Structure formats: structure tokens, C-alpha cells
Amino acid sequence: MSGIWLAVVGGLIFFLGYRYYSKFIAEKIYRLDPNYVTPAHQYKDGVDFVPTNKFVLWGHHFTSVAGAAPIVGPAIAVYWGWLPAVLWVLLGTVFAAGVHDFGTLVLSVRNKGQSIGTLASKLIGQKAKVLFLFIILLLVLMVNAVFAWVIANLFISFPASVLSVFIQIPLAIWIGYSVYKKQGNMLLPSIVALAVMYIAAIVASYVPALQIDLVRYFGGEGASTIFGLNATSMAFFVWIVVLMVYVYIASTLPVWKLLQPRDYINSHQLIVGLGLLYLGLLFTNPEITAPVTNASADTSWFPLLFITIACGAISGFHGLVSSGTSSKQLNKETDARFVGYLGSVGEGALALVAIIAVVTFFPTAGEFTATYSGFTAASGAGLGVFIQGAGQLASGLGIPASVAATIVSVIVVSFAATTLDSSVRLMRYIIAELGTEYKVTPLTKTHVATTVAVVSSAALTLIPQGPKGFGSGGYLLWPLFGTSNQLLAGISLLLVSIWLKRQGRNYLPTIIPMVFLMFMTLWAMIDQVVTEWAPWNDGSDWMLFSFGAIILVFTFWILITAFSAIAGNRDDSIEKSA
């Protein structure tokens, strides 16, 4: 079967979902009001609350949520066969992710741009708010560790991509000042910036002197350093330090200085990247060599599929971005459909092409099976196979394989870095909110809260544990990232459902995906915490068990509280929609 058919069917389903289902949700369920004064105007401060053109905001929102996860998750999940992965990406995007991202954005806009954690207090009580904030805090901490780990390893594996990624920073700052200080247009400068980045990537692919290869600098593979680490570990450590310094600065700057213009550049990278891959797919017309379903898999896809593919089908982190940053920049309430629902469709399209790139990469089914010999092997190989597979598709347009791999890695790192600094910004908000809740005044200060976020994220990323050794924290957290992410999405859908019920609306479009998601995720998480990670098992892992057990207890506590709230009286502190 040709990979083109997957792209055609997927594109049609995404189009119909946005054209008809999102319109139904906007008009009949969320009931958007074009005259509603959004928080971006009501609390405009030039730092966090900034009215923003919907195309620019879509760029920020999409690139904040579309990090490495919609690539890594699908690239691993094809282990069970391409059909289950494709179905979950398509149906999950249209009926779950779009509704979730759109709904958390509207709920926040209707309530002063407050985060989903704060809204939990109004909807299901103060205790639930604190528990929810702790779950969110643990999730963003894991997001920071996982994405920092991914970026550092891509820099090590593809040193030709480093120059382009770092060139983007001054270019984005230049665009920010040009647009917001001189009232210029962002489109042309961002295209120029993108061209400069790709020229740098192409040149660096052929000029070793422009490749920032820290492993080579520290003596090459196997060489020891004065710290007792090999060259690869030392390079990893340095990249994590550099990334944490960067995200500290990026997450404390006003959004217009770096966040928005860089995200707008990255939105063009999305268009270019998806264009390269889908056009490459058209010209190469590759055959799918991966199995439809994998009957010999060592683990069952049910329910693990639904936590392995989080971003790309539905992700709780998206709700944090919707209610944490995007809601503070929404110019008109009617823009929420374009930003929220279409943002999730963009991520679904990225997840779909990731699947296609992987399942068409191998010449034979036997080579696929050899690489994806077990779930653990699939977890380790997924991202690398995607980059090689994406490079193979792009080479169909006449782009040399080495250049294509560099450009793809630049796109992946750019998205991951965007998610990383948005996540650190969100973590700063949450730490400050907890500081206010418990009257710990220093934590309410921007730089104190950011320092706590950055230091804890770096420490978690660098934890040396298990066979992966130094710097394995981000890698080891991936299984828990998926489960906690999906639990957060389920709780967020529950909050939106409670809000809709109290407004006298039809809440079936939000409660049905919530029930499905919570059932699958709790099943998977209980199985992992009790039968895999617990100290009494052979495959025990104290870090995953501790984090997982805490999140699981907090989730059940919130659900019990929420069930009583569903039957409770309306809370007048929640804004009534028009």
C-alpha cells in the first residue's frame, strides 16, 4: 500500500473535522461572542497580556505545543502496527484534541485568562486546585526534562543543526523589535529569517568547521574528561547547561521580544517541513513496509497506545498552553476556533507524517521488525528512524540526504525548544501561584520562581540512573510523561464539562472523550505503577514509581471531588457565556 493514501485520507478527515465539527462546537457548544472583551485587551500590559493577530498567535500556540512529542510518540507506537496508530491520531485529533485545546482556551478567556489550575478551584473546590497545580507542576517538570534531553541528544547526533538553531534567536529578537516598536509586518522578516536559518543548515552540512560538535571537542567517543565523564556525557552536560541558561532568559522576557516572533518563524517551519515531507511523499510514492498490526508484539497496544501517542492525538500540556499563554494573547474570542482547534489539527498532521515517514522508511518488513524488535527497542529507535525517514522523503525533491536530515533536525529542535521555554514560563506561573497559596512570598517573585523551575528541570534531566547512565532522567521519564499528560487532558476536559453543564449546555462532546481518556489512562498507569515500577517487582524503578504513585493518588482525589461538584450548585464566580 502506498503511503500517499494515508496522507490523503488523513488530510480529508482533518479538513472535515475543522470545517464542520469545530464550527458546530464553536457555535452550539462554546457559543463564541465576537464582541466579548478578551483578557488581552482587558489586562493589556505589554508583557503577558498582548492582543495578537490570530495568525501570529496560531504560530505561537502551535509551536508551543508541537515539540518533539507528536513525532516521538507516533514513531514509537507504530511498533503495534500502523493502523492503530493512524486511527488514534485521526480520531483523537478531531474528537478529543480539538475539543480539549479549543475548550480550555475559551474557558480561560471567559475567566480573566486564568490557568486551568486556578479554574479548578472555582469549579471543583480549593483542595482540588492545589492538587491539580501539583499534578501540573510535575507534568511541566517532566516536559522540561524530556524535551531538554531530546534537544541535547539531537545537538550531539546532528551538530550541523546547532548553528541554525542559535541563529534563530537574534533574528527573532530583531523581528520582535521591528514589528512591535516600528509597527512593521512580521511576515516578510520571518520568511527572511527562515531562509537565513536554512542557508546556515545547508552550509554547515558541508563545512565541518561550522558544525558545533562538542563530542569531538572533548576528544571524541570514549575519551575521558577531567570530570570522569566520557566525551558524549560531557557534551550532554554542557548542552543542558546552555539550554537552561537560554530558557531562563527566554521565559522571563516579554512575549513580544522573543516568544512570539520566534514562534511565528517556527510556524513557517511547520509549513515548510510539512510541505517538504508531503511533497516528497508525492514524488517518491513509497510503499508501507511496516505491518498493519503487529501480532508478535511483546506488549499489548490496548491501552498503552493511548498514552504512547499523547501529543498528536490529545495532550494535557496543550490545555496548559491554551490557558497559560494563548488565552492572554487572544485578540477576539472568535479567534479561539482558529487558534485552538486548528492548532490541534496542525499537530495531528505532524503526527500523521511522522507515522508515514517511519512506516515507509524500511525497504522490507523484515528490516522494520528487526529494528522494532520489542517495545523497548522501538522507544530507543523512534526519533532517529523518523529523522532518517523524513530525510528519505525530502530527498525525493532532490535534496541531498545529509542536508535533509539536518533541516529536519533543525525543525524538530526548534519546536522542542519552543515547547521547553513555554513550559518553563508555565512552571514559573505555577510556582508563583503555589507561593501565593501557601504565603511563601519569595516564590511569587519572577526570578526566584524561574530559578526554581530551571534548576529542578536541569537536576531531573541529569539524573544518572539505570543502563542509560549519566543524563538519563529525560529518557527514563518518557513512559510517565505520556500517562500524566493524558490524565491532565482528562481532568481538563472534566473541568470544561462541568462549566458547560453549569451553563445549561450540551456537554456530551467533552464528557465522552473525557471518560474514554480517563479509563484508558488510569488503566495503563495503574498497570505500570503496580506491576512494572513498584519496588516489589524485578523491573522496579524508584523514580517512576514515586512520581507515578503521587500523580495517581492526586488524580483519584480530584476525580472524587469533581463527581460531587458535578451534582453541586452553580458557581457564580465562573463567567457566564453570552
TrEMBL record:
Residues 3-362, 379-524 form the CstA N-terminal domain. The chain crosses the membrane at residues 6-21, 62-82, 88-109, 130-152, 158-180, 187-207, 227-249, 270-288, 300-321, 341-362, 368-387, 399-420, 476-500, 507-526, 546-567. The keyword Membrane applies. InterPro entries: CstA (IPR051605), CstA_N (IPR003706). It comes from the Bacteria. It is found in: Cell membrane. Pfam families: CstA. Its main location: membrane. Keywords: Cell membrane, Membrane, Transmembrane, Transmembrane helix. The keyword Cell membrane applies. It is a multi-pass membrane protein. One of its GO terms (biological process) is cellular response to starvation. Belongs to the peptide transporter carbon starvation (CstA) (TC 2.A.114) family. This is Carbon starvation protein.
